[in-house]
Amino acid sequence: MQGILKTIWKEKELRLKERKSAVPEAQLLRQIEELPARPRHVFSKALAEKASLSGCSVIAEIKKASPSKGLIRPKFNPQEIAKSYERNGAACLSVLTEEGYFLGSSEILMQVRACSSLPILRKDFLSDPYQILEARAWGADAVLLIAALSSSQLGEMAQAAEEQGLDVLVESHDEEELERALEIPRALIGINNRNLDTFEVSLETTVRLKQLVPSDRWLVSESGIHDRADVSRLKQIGIRSFLVGEACMRKADPGAGLRELFYAVA
Questions:
Q1: Which residue of the set 44, 84, 88, 223 is catalytic?
Q2: Does the N terminus or the C terminus of the chain have fewer Cβ atoms within 10 A?
Q3: Is the pLDDT score of 134 beyond 70?
Q4: pLDDT digit string (tens) for 144-186?
Q5: Strands (E), 51-129
């Protein structure tokens, strides 16, 4: 890891120490016990069901900012955005909880959980099983893991997620990371078209890496999907699920942007 990504990981580790001190693991476990029951692995099921019904499924992202683009949506109402996505065909939601560069928070995820029945992905830079418990306590149904982690770290995190009934989306950008992602038995496989070290984006990343993914694994293409031509190109090579954020978040109505991008009748 280089550049800004390395900085984000270091700052995340510092915040994690503070949160562990403020909210002990035993407290998180008590919060989880008090939550309403939710079925296990609803996130992956929702993606598959929506793709079967509509030809593709979308994880619609709720984020205010990013390190590559800065502030994306100044007028930011997470609940309105979530409701708009749900009305317009999103299968699942992705909520940023990284504070420093994406301006996310646990509060945003909990606000979204309170107003939407869609499965929610906690999207963050996760490296400790404690963060899996956080995700479950806040109401998430899945977590993003970045395959820049070691195989042993990925395995530990995936096991912690399985114990909580959460799905795992393991994100990779190159062949080495993809190999580690495929070691996780139940994981959804994410291909990030954005290089997290340089922020360069190319759909060729999905085109190249898809050939290495076994047909029985569920694949999600992430980032760099801006127009219907991008969607069409990826559908043509067999991609059925997409994670999209900026293209919709820059629209006055994010859900209408999602529908136009994926489900508009030509």
A1: 223
A2: C
A3: yes
A4: 999 989 999 999 999 999 999 999 999 999 999 999 999 999 9
A5: 57-62, 65-66, 70-71, 92-96, 120-123
Which residue type sits at 135?
A
Q: Which residue among the candidates 12, 50, 57, 61 is catalytic per the annotation?
A: 61
| Catalytic residue list contains 192 | yes
Strand bridging mode 57-62 / 219-222: unpaired
Question: Judging by beta carbons within 10 Å of its beta carbon (0-12, 13-18, 19+), is residue 214 exposed, middle or buried?
Answer: exposed
**204 flagged as catalytic:** no
Contacts 24+ apart (CB under 8 A), 13-22: 13/127, 15/99, 15/100, 16/128, 16/130, 16/131, 19/130, 19/134, 20/130
Q: E strand or H helix at 82, and its extent?
A: helix 78-87
Residue 114 in this model has a pLDDT that exceeds 50: yes
Q: Is 107 marked active-site?
A: no
Does residue 223 have an active-site annotation? yes
For β-strands 65-66 and 70-71, DSSP reports them as: antiparallel
Residue tagged active-site, from 162, 177, 222, 246: 222
Given 44, 116, 123, 172, the catalytic residue: 123
Spot the catalytic one: 66, 106, 116, 192. 192
- What values do phi and psi take at 146, rounded to 5? -100, 125
Spatial separation of the C-alpha atoms in residues 165 and 28, rounded to whole Å: 15
- To the query of whether residue 12 is one of the catalytic residues in this protein, the response is no
In the residue annotation, 179 being an active-site residue is answered as no
The DSSP letter of residue 37 is P
> Which is catalytic among the residues 57, 63, 94, 172?
63
88 is catalytic: no
DSSP 3-state assignment of 33?
Answer: helix
